# Entry
Amino acid sequence: MPDRDQILIAGGGIGGLAAALGLAQKGLRSLVLEKSSKLGEIGAGIQLGPNAFHAFDTLGVGDQARAMAVYIDNLRLMDALSADEITRIPLDDAFRARFGNPYAVVHRDDLHGVLLKACRVSPLIELQTNAEVTAYDQTEADVTVTLQDARRLHGRALIGADGLWSKIRAQLLGDGAPVVSGHSTYRSVIPVAEMPEDLRWNDATLWAGPKCHIVHYPLSGGKLFNLVVTYHNDAPEPVAGKPVTHEEVRRGFEHVHPKARQIIDKGSDWKLWVLCDRDPVMGWTEGRVALLGDAAHPMLQYFAQGACMALEDAVCLADELAGARDLPAALIRYQDRRRLRTARVQLQSREIGTHVYHPAGAHAALRNAVMTARGPQAWFDQIAWLYGSTGLEGAVSHETQRERK
# Structure
């Protein structure tokens, strides 16, 4: 087949590989172009809602994803000042029955590995490393990309899945740098034996405090705990994966309860990220070029949905491109089906950070009162629009629409 019959995908992360798998499910060839020298993921833990597992099933890797996941018992919210429990959402049989799939946590590289293995065995997917896409040009019939080594490759379309600092977005939208949140996130991993025994919960636990929070949950079959702590310290510029001292991390948590603070003392080899996102946009396509995942709609971590949204994007993209004779029109349909749902997650991620993760004083007391009063069924109703959806319906799931009738 001539090169122009393939769909080019810039970026070999979770979103890019998922897009390739989705297209292969529909019989479409793709070439994944990854700038790094090897295919892999940076970071440790990642949370996966039921909507991620809906996507895995569609992409043909549901069984493999379930096999490597760690199934937690609750989403638990703690007050970081008093060490009191505020609420918990049980992730039991009732949760799975309501949403059709489980909630789980995984090591990011393990998840990437599941997608990568499936891509490598597909005859419709080609993978290239050391292949950073720096620019593109297009005609009515095809797209040509230029790589960092000046090579030029051709395809039917280009999907920019090249992350927060996407070069494809820079050319397509030209909307400048991402928004710096001022929130500094520090990441570590703790062997289970070093985690305080009375805190070895099989839960995704959030300790919420004034301008700071702590998150921990088990990983790797319960052998490790993933630890992510965030301090709203008005950091002025983006940082990604910078090694920092324990003293720097602890500095933002001197005011929290000793029970919560002791968790930080167990961390080591800390690395810093300064969180960034973007305001939602109404369009991320141009002719035969479209964006996907963080390149299209980067979001703060507070909804734990960044990877989930990329997976949903991949499913929707493949659904629209399957059998499409007018490829630019199909890309617009993909964009239009995804933009309001992803905008909702982007905006609500910011609001959750403000109203759940980081409030103080009366604001925090109100949070505690409201969230303590809400039982499991009320929580299920609250999150049905997100977890009860395949992501193909737009901003509101069919389940939520039924509840309104």
